[in-house]
Structures are given as C-alpha cells and as structure tokens.
Amino acid sequence: MNSFILTFQTSHQALEEEEKLQESDFIIKMIPTPRGISSECGFSIRVDSNELSITEQLTKNDNSIERIYLIYERQRSKNYEEIYRRKNTPLPPTGD
Amino acid sequence: MSLIYLDNSATSFPKAPGMAEAVKEALLTAGTSGRASYDEVLKGSRILYKCRTNIAQLLGVRNSSQIILNSGATESLNTVIKGYVRQNMRVLTSGAEHNSVMRVLEFLKEDKNITVDRFLCRKDGMADLKSYSDFLSHSPDLVILCHSSNVTGAVYPIKEMIKKAHSAGSAVCIDGAQSAGYEEINLQNLNPDFFCFSGHKGLLGPAGTGGFYIKEGQKLQPLIFGGTGSRSEEEIQPNMLPDKYESGTRNIPGLAGLAESSSYVLKTGIHKIQKKEQVLSRMILENLSSIEGITIYGPKELENRNSVVSFTHDSLDISQIAEILDNEGIAMRMGLHCTPSAHKVLGTFDSGGTIRLSPGYFNNEEEIMGTIDVIRKAING
Fold first, then answer.
1. ipTM
2. Are A72 and A79 in contact (CB under 8 A)?
3. How does pLDDT run across B268-318, given as a tens digit for each residue?
4. B365: domain range?
5. Pick from B219, B243, B268: which residue ends a domain?
6. Are the Cβ atoms of A10 and B64 closer than 8 angstroms?
C-alpha cells in the first residue's frame, strides 16, 4: 500500500477535495500537514492506495490540489517526495 | 392571544426547524476551524464548509470559496464599501438606501473625500431608471443597489441595472439583506461584483450570521486582518479566498445554525417560500386597502414587490395603531426602519414613518386575517 499526501491553499479547498474523494475508492484521512511539507493550509489529506501513481486520476478534472507527495520510509524516518506541483503557484516557506 | 409575528424583515421568527439544535450541537461538540486536524476542529471546519456550499447553491454561485462568511449584511457592506472605495472616488446609490450603506458613505465623504451621487426614486419606491442612467454618465467607481426594500417592498430590476453600470465601467455591490432566501437569485446570471446577505432574515438562521459574494478577480482591502489558519509562516494577509476576508475565529455555533437553516431553505425550495409569502402579502394588501383612511406604500404591481407592506392612516397616528397591535400580541415594526431616505421618498418621514407588516414562510392566512381585524377595529373603533 502506498501513501500520498495532498496539500491545499485553504481548509475550504481541502474539504472540497475530501468530499470528492469520499465518492472514490481511495482510503482517505484528514491529517495535520507534516512539518517537512510546504503547505499553506494547516491540514492535508492522506490518500492510501495500491496504485503506484494517483496523480493523473486526481488531477485530470477540476481540482484545487497544490502538491502531491509520496510518503516513504528511509532510516526509520518518514520522507516526502513531491510528485505533483500545480503550475504557477509559489510556495510559502516550510514549517521546518 | 398567542403571538402573531409579522416582523420578518427585521429578523425571521420562528427560525428553521432544527436550527437551534444545530447551534447547541456545535457549542457542545465543535472546536475552531482550519487550524488543526483533530476531530473537533474538523467538525468546525466542516460546519463552515457546509454553510458556504449551501449558500453558494442558494445564490447560484459555482465556486463556493467566493462566499465569505461573517456577522451579516452590515459587516459585509462595510467590508465591500470601505475595502473598495479609495481617495476621491465617486459612488452612486439610490435615494432610498438603508443606513448600513448611507452611514458608511457619509463617513467616507469626510474620510476619503469621496463624491456620493444618489439617483431619484419614484413615489412608489422604485428606481427612476432615467435618473439612474443620467448619473451613470458620470462614470462612478462603485454603484450600490438595494435589491429589495425593507420599507417600500420595491424590488429593483437589478439585472438591467447591473448591466448598465458595467457598461459605464462601474463595479456593482448589491445589498441583498431583504432578498436572499426570499426570491430566486442566480449571481452567475445577475453578474454583480459583490452581493451582501443576511443569515437571520430570509435564510432563517441565527442573528450574527451572513456574508457576501465576491466575483472572481475582484479585490477588496480586508476590513479585518489577522490569523486565518493558512500561510501561518507569513505575517502578511493571505490572498486566497475565503481566508483573505475571514480573519479570526468564525462564529461556528451561529454558522452551524445557518448551515442547518440554509439546508432547510434548499430542501423547501425558494419558489415555494416566495409563493406562500406572496399569497400572505397579497391578502394584507387587499384587505388593508378596503379600510377607509389607510394609505399603502410601494409599487402597485405585485411582481415588483416583496412581502413587505408599509402603511399609514389619515387621522390615526401610527404610534396609536402600533400600541393596539402590541397589546393584541401582533409583532410588527413602526417607524423609519433604519432607512430615513426611503421615507423622504414616500413622504412619511415627517410623520415618523410607517407601520410595516412583513409576513414570513411560517405565517398562515388565519393570522393575517386576525391582524386585519385588529387594525380594522383600531381604526373604526
């Protein structure tokens, strides 16, 4: 099972996306945005899926996802690899 | 005698079924919103989300993040007018506007040296469209229009008026305090730049709730700056909607009530609500007009009216009629209704205003006829 994190500009957008994803087969959960991830909103959506990549499915229609990160473990710590970035959106500094 | 409530223009009563329970539930179980992801905060965030998406649906707005939630129409009008108007700008509004608009403009005349033009209204409270067009030729920066009057009952032809204002290069703000929840509104179609609404009137929610719509691409200086739960690393106000205009913790219990009441309005249907209010309003108009000495104000054509009925009597002072109605448990409003200029248009300013009856969705025909009987007896003795 792979885990991904979706980030948003506002909590309204996160809830809007949550509503859409609740109708999909993905397993989702609202989580506090991890400190290593750059996000404008205090919470993000974690998506668990057996698929290797979910980007195309999540971004092919109207959406407000800012970034998608793949979560992976290295040396017993969680790492986040950015696999999608919305065009023309500057990022604020990370929480680190 | 039990209460007959005919003051729905001031605030709706009773409120939507389930509304009070939703407020209580939020007080007992919800936290803040958007600042964390524990259950209580998610609940608070979801309340705001539901409220915003319901209002967007009711107002025909596709992108619900363009709905800003706050304490109501007065805060919204202050936000839009103060946030839009800059030094030496020109503003056009009607000659019958509410104090929630006029007091802001009077302040800005002094504070920012703005020019305020006021187009004429007809004797029945409707906009004089010739005068409106004449003033638009001065190319105002902002036009502020009352959609539906709380005194005369007049409903302005705002689609046509918005189009004319845009042709003159003006932005348009609509005061929808009396129209949201009372009539079908599609903002994509009407195309104003801003639309301000109240949560506790036609939307049947609690006092201290409401908000405004902002068209995509429009910008205002926020009225209030502060924490939004987003872009917390930065000390400058975020630009994203709705956060830009929602600093500080929202009134989550109140907005839980508005979320519930707007669900009720959506489920019931605006058309059904409007139709019932029109029937009751027509009943008041027909029966009052048969009482000698009564003058009814506002447009004659029913399609140009909301459910508000204002009247006076030739010989009996309005305070005498109001006292009898009070004693009989009939809730109405006597006076100027925070809109002195509308009474100057009607010619009722010097005599202290009018008596206003404003039926709502929860009134019935028996209550209306009971009220008419009391008025008839008060006048005929």
1. 0.79
2. yes
3. 999 999 999 999 999 999 999 999 999 999 998 888 999 999 999 999 888
4. 4-14+269-380
5. B268
6. no
